[in-house]
What does this fold into?
Amino acid sequence: MERTIIVNDTPYRLESVTGQVLATTKSMETSVQGSVSGGGGRLREGSGKVHGVDLQLVSTTIVHDQFFLADEAGREHAFQLQGFNVACREGNSLTVVSAFAPGQARGPYVAVRNNTTQTRFVNESALRTLCSPSLLRYLLVCLGAMLVEYKLLSGFLLITGCLFATAFATMVVYGIKSGSNLEDFKKHL
It folds into this structure.
């Protein structure tokens, strides 16, 4: 099924496949990154100082879902998704939604709905990438505003304060718009 939604005056094409789960598997990938700093020191004849070691570890786990659906016409569809953690079993009815930006032939999977259990799984990072406003456009507007302020104002502190305020306001507006677009997109799924 295909339909179009409009978010922030931009039309996005949504394509979905609904079918019964034939088979499903799940795997997890964990990556661990760490850093060590500090340590060392000097001891001599029972006196001196030894510095402690600072160890920082960060682990990230990504869930991989793989499942096969049979649609109403009997066609089989295979899906391999990352970051959804879809709860489903054989026999459940699923709808998988992918979204396409204007002019794009490919788009990310953005949502999976388990129609049997009435639960929805959304890939927020894919949605955020897809529907965030152009950061370059916001930065160009910010630069233009800063140039105007520089030409109109005098005094180092006044100019500096206005430039920082403009940069801060631009980032706040960009963040608000990104969040608004994300929530608007999720409502239409």
